[in-house]
Amino acid sequence: MPDGPAPVQEPVLDVRSLKTVFKTRSGEVHAVNDVSFDVRPGELLGVVGESGSGKSVTMMSLIGLLPSPPADIRGGQVLFDGNDLLATDAETLRKVRGGRIGFVFQDPMTSLNPVFNVGFQIMEPLRRHMGMTKAQARLRACELLELVGIPDASRRLKDYPHQFSGGMRQRVMIAIALACDPKVLIADEPTTALDVTIQAQIIELVKDLREKLGMAIIWITHDLGVIAGIADRVMVMYAGQVVEQAPTRELFGNPQHPYTRALLETIPTVRGARPEKLNVIQGQPPILGAAPSACPFRDRCAFRFDRCDRENPVRIPAGPGHDAACFYDFNTGGPRGA
Amino acid sequence: MLDEPKQPLVRVDNLKMHFPIFGGLLRRRTGEVKAVDGISFDIFEGETLGLVGESGCGKSTVGRSVLRLYEVTDGSVTIDGRDIAHAPPEELRQMRTQMQMIFQDPQASLNPRMKVSEIIAEPLREHHAGTATERRQRVLELMDQVGLNRDFANRYPHEFSGGQRQRIGIARALALNPKFIVCDEPIAALDVSIQAQVVNLLEELQNELGLTYLFISHDLSMVRHIADRVAVMYLGRIVELAPRDALYDDPLHPYTKALLSAVPEPDPAIEEKVERIILTGDVPSPSNPPQGCNFCTRCPAVMDICKRDEPEFREVQPGRFVACHHFNDII
């Protein structure tokens, strides 16, 4: 995997200061706070975070998949193909979704419709977005199933989702997402519901497809292991914010945010050294009742000092292509800029 | 760890758990799902036996059968010298205090209409342990022990986070001072940063109370952390059982090799060097397992004999058991 600085290219997707709030009966929940990132053509961006860190909500917000109410997008821009997706009309958005931006969700059983055969479901975006005739769409659907490694494709088009195994269903989902030749593929925990041996199959498939098709991929996961093997660049989210962002090797080798560090120390592995006792991140993630005015990680942080209680840090450059939202400088062992 | 030779606390011998399938107009028995198909293992006092495998391999069924939450089809389960699989109801009831279970989903395994104190006290009430005041005292002790704030005794489960709910489940399991606890995917529903908290708690309790665990999980890295010995299941059978380090450093069975190689490594430098064995195809149905070795349809090292004869589960090195024809010559 190339680890050096990527050639300077215009980002294919550019998200700036996205803010999403949910209005509930018991008050507001600030799920996404000022999230900015971009993805370059052909790049695989890994997004890591625990449940509730806002990684899925960020992705759903940017293509308008959240019902409003309760969701309320309070600000930001999502630049894609010359449009701001947050400012555009519903019709344009519908063309982008499933067309130039494809999706794969976590659970392939709930995201496929059980009453239509998979052929119909793969042909649907082709006919809607690409204006293909039924015959053309069928031909292309067949190609797509072969592309994602489903044997005997033409016969399997007539099968229904329940006739496929979990791994095969996820392949079908990937085929649907790829149908209109997307520029960006958003995969939200695509292997979390699968067993490890099947997960390994899907990861191999995605690596292979990326080489063949060259689209940008945003891969959301809570599994740092999956990210290490597949991503070019990683973005770590905590409490609705991006806390650190770096090229993969840099992030794992030289993490600059205490949360990233703690996360890397807490996970056991099947190879390498086995610690007698697991490191623990004490406490729990905060409840996001309001936009944070101080660092959201401070209560669980071993490097906390007074500034962390007063201000919420913004992302500060910490190396080439590397930034972290923390006032503590791990290189000098003191406050940043002190 | 103790140096003296340990006694097996739990002995499982040729355990089978087949679930009937009914079909057709008259709902006649048309077949059976062989969820667990003849497995044997021992768990020594004070140790943790990890039981790993992919979904549908029967590992949870083993956990439930061992505690006789199912009536087993065949085989025997002995806990602390008493045969639990065939014990009459009243005897079984008394034996139940010795063995408990921690479930995967703390949301589903705690009654939402009961207060935490009632949930933890329920086993005590059920087995008539102590007076009301004594029970109350015991509940508070247990809450301290698992790291729950005493002040929250009168709250309901929904007021707690996932990790805290799992602590409630653990406190309930400890209430009757059991010797043996089946942990069925106790951390699968929790976030990574919370998983370590719960695993460390389970380890501390084991050291303090001398507990014996059967730790069922699909998370191979967590099992490597917590288990002393590990059994790997595939399609209703144990394919390999070995001490933890031996299994992870030098897996013998082709399935164990593939399973371990498939686990992603959270370090790009190591990850790059991992040689992956990508298995093709899916797990066959347990209602219609293949002839011969259960793994023969996906095994990268399959031989003719594998499709004909079922391999015997035997000790190929001291303490290491494997069911594979590749190890037939080794004694």
UniProtKB/TrEMBL annotation, chain A:
It comes from Litoreibacter ascidiaceicola. One of its GO terms (biological process) is peptide transport. This is Peptide/nickel transport system ATP-binding protein/oligopeptide transport system ATP-binding protein. The keyword Cell membrane applies. Its main location: membrane. GO terms for cellular component: plasma membrane. Keywords: ATP-binding, Cell membrane, Membrane, Nucleotide-binding, Transport. CDD domains: ABC_NikE_OppD_transporters (cd03257). It is a peripheral membrane protein. The keyword Transport applies. Belongs to the ABC transporter superfamily. It is found in: Cell inner membrane. Residues 16-264 form the ABC transporter domain. GO terms for molecular function: ATP binding; ATP hydrolysis activity. InterPro entries: AAA+_ATPase, ABC_Ni/Peptide_Import, ABC_transporter-like_ATP-bd, ABC_transporter-like_CS, Oligopep_ABC_C, P-loop_NTPase.
From TrEMBL, chain B:
It is found in: Cell inner membrane. Residues 10-260 form the ABC transporter domain. Its main location: membrane. It holds the Pfam family ABC_tran. It is a peripheral membrane protein. InterPro entries: AAA+_ATPase, ABC_transp_ATP-bind, ABC_transporter-like_ATP-bd, ABC_transporter-like_CS, Oligopep_ABC_C, P-loop_NTPase. One of its GO terms (molecular function) is ATP hydrolysis activity. It comes from the Bacteria. GO terms for biological process: peptide transport; transmembrane transport. One of its GO terms (cellular component) is plasma membrane. CDD domains: ABC_NikE_OppD_transporters. Keywords: ATP-binding, Nucleotide-binding, Transport. The keyword DNA repair does not apply. Belongs to the ABC transporter superfamily. This is Oligopeptide transport system ATP-binding protein.
